[in-house]
Write a structure and sequence with these properties.
This protein is of the alpha+beta class. It has one domain: 3-Layer(aba) Sandwich (NADH Oxidase). The chain is built from six helices and four strands. The protein has a four-stranded antiparallel sheet, with helices on both faces. Helix 2 packs antiparallel against helix 5. The longest helix has 18 residues. The protein is globular and about 50 Å long. The structure holds flavin mononucleotide (FMN). Flavin mononucleotide binds next to strand 3.
């Protein structure tokens, strides 16, 4: 699948909006992801408003792309009554990766910005959105049409990481 091999983190975007249809496709791709017991904990906030995106860009020192992106998705997990509560971060990761790959497919660029394991970033988003305790901020994904950087293949295959039958 070509998109897997070309996907790169794109952090700079053209001054051009992302079509509603494309945002819809990104969200549909996310919700097709596998999840533990099919529990689908994901919810999404679509942030296009400049003021909100500026606030999101301050969540961590590494979330600056949110300020310059036409759209940033806030991925949150609804952990109320989950069948398999310990799996929510894995579920969310699968959904997020689907977004990144669909973005490449749609000629967009995107970047994953981690939140869930950063206590101060979690608090920042909780304060910003006033989430109840069962809503867990997971990550931000900024999306737009790539500017200077493009999705392009870089070879990361390392044969020494592959083991046949035994680990030696
Ligand atoms: C869990 C996780 C958290 C990440 N957090 C950030 C982040 O906060 N800001 C950022 O610019 N990139 C972030 N990235 C993107 C990585 O820096 C990037 O995937 C890595 O450098 C490899 O480059 P590539 O995505 O272009 O292949 C994150 C990636 C993952 C998987």
């Amino acid at each position: 699948m070509d998109e897997i091999f070309r996907r790169r983190s794109i952090r700079k975007y053209q001054d051009r909006p992302v079509e509603k249809e494309k945002i819809d496709k990104l969200l549909r791709a996310a919700m097709q992801a596998p999840s533990a017991g099919n529990q689908q904990p994901w919810e999404f906030i679509v942030a296009e408003d400049e003021e909100i995106r500026n606030q999101l860009s301050l969540a961590t020192p590494y979330s600056k792309p949110a300020a310059g992106a036409p759209v940033t998705l806030v991925l949150i997990a609804n952990c109320k009554d989950l069948k398999h509560p310990t799996f929510w971060q894995q579920d969310m990761s699968a959904a997020l990766q689907n977004i990144l790959l669909e973005a490449v497919h749609l000629e967009l660029g995107a970047v994953w910005m981690g939140i869930a394991t950063n206590e101060s970033a979690v608090k920042y988003l909780n304060d910003m959105y006033q989430f109840p305790e069962y809503i867990k901020p997971f990550a931000l994904v900024s999306v737009g049409y790539p500017d200077t950087q493009q999705n392009e293949f870089t070879d990361r295959y390392k044969p020494e990481k592959v083991h046949f039958e035994k680990w030696t």
